[in-house]
Each structure stands twice: as C-alpha cells, then as structure tokens.
Amino acid sequence: MSKNFKLQSAMEYLMTYGWAILVIAIVLVALYALGVFNGSAFLHPSCIAASGYICTNQTAVTETGANAGNLLVGLTFGQNGGSTVYNAILSVAPQSAGATSSGFPVASSLSSNTNMCSSGGNCALVAGGEQQVYFQVPGAEFTSGNSIGSQFSGYIWLNYSTSQNPPNNAMNAVKVATLIVKVT
Fold first, then answer.
1. Could you give the residue ranges of the DSSP H alpha helices within the chain?
2. Domain shared by 159 and 130, yes or no
3. Could you read off the pLDDT tens digit of each residue along the chain, which spans 184 residues?
4. Containing structural domain, residue 79
5. Residues 31 and 91 in one domain
6. Smallest Cα–Cα separation from 79: which of 99, 52, 101?
7. Do 128 and 78 contact (CB within 8 A), yes or no?
8. Which 8-state DSSP code applies to residue 34?
C-alpha cells in the first residue's frame, strides 16, 4: 500500500513541475518571437567621434522617388581641436565595406561626399564650429538592408589639408567617427 502512495506522489511531483516548465518554455518562445532577445533592439543610435571632433543628432531615412533604395544619413559634425582644417570633405563608409591595403575604405563603398563649405565658399572646418551634413549611401552597400527599423553602422571619413592651398599630395584622410543609427 505504501508503494502506491510513493508512486502517486512522484507522479504528482512530475506533473506539477512539468506543467511549470512547459509554461516557462512557451513564454520564452513568445518573447523570442517578439524580438525581446534581439540585441540590436536595445542599441541606441550613436555617433562616437574621435578626439577633437563633434558628432551629434544622427538620423537615417530611406529615400523615395528618383533615389529610392538609397539611405540618407544626416548628422551634425564639427571639430573642437585647436586649429582650422581646410578643404574639408566628409564621406561615410558602411562597416561592411571592404578596405584597401592602406586601411582606407574601397572607393565604390563611400557615400556621396559632403563639402564642409560655408556660404562664402571657404571649405574650412573651423575649431569650435559645427555644421549639419547629409550623405547619400547606396542601398546595396550595407548588409542589414535599408528597411525601416534596420540598423546602419559605418565610419565617417574626413579628407582635409592643413593649409588653404595645399599641393596635390598634401591631403590627409582620417576616420573621425563611428556611426550607428536606425533607419526611420
């Protein structure tokens, strides 16, 4: 008789905990399906600038019309270093873009260039100055796609010279920021 009570007790134990484990498994599957465990869902847009540069207010939108499929990236860029840089041209390259042997992105992966020219035609990036800039990034260049809610991550490159009229080979190219932004 005591043997039957032990079997019944074991069976009740297994059934109680079995149902609890089943409910927990169903909840975990539902949370996974909703994307709760997707790390990029918690990733906030950011623009991390190198020392001496400013990068804020980043946005990314999918273009429509004649430029459909391209990504339009906008941000406020500036520098707070001690000296003015001249002939400043910014570009964005997706992190997925290939690199040349010197470490620079492959030219075909770069966005449209954005000159840092003021209304007077001087393409100088003055110390302490900021400017709103926009880049058109080709749609085929980033791996996660350009649909709303997808993420774009890339690097901002600055070509510049230290004098107003440099010789042809006096241009410098540096990676000045890392950009992560969700497409809206």
1. 2-33
2. yes
3. 556 678 888 888 888 899 999 999 999 999 888 877 776 666 677 888 888 888 888 888 877 776 666 778 888 888 887 788 887 888 888 777 766 655 566 655 566 556 555 444 557 778 888 888 888 776 555 434 566 777 778 888 888 887 777 666 666 778 888 888 887 7
4. 42-182
5. no
6. 52
7. yes
8. T
If asked whether residues 60 and 80 sit together in one domain, one would say yes
Q: What is the pTM of this model?
A: 0.65
Phi, psi of 42 (to 5 degrees): -100, 0
Q: How many domains does the chain have?
A: 2
Task: Look up the CATH number of the domain holding residue 152.
Answer: 2.60.40
Q: Which among 69, 67, 75, 68 has a CA at the least distance from the CA of 92?
A: 75
Tracing tokens 């991550």 back to the chain, one arrives at 153
Length of the chain: 184
Joined tokens for residue 173: 């190219």
Co-location of 46 and 14 in the same domain = no
Residues 104 and 173: beta-carbon distance below 8 Å: yes
Same domain, 20 and 81: no
How far apart, in whole angstroms, are the C-alpha atoms of residue 103 and residue 32? 38
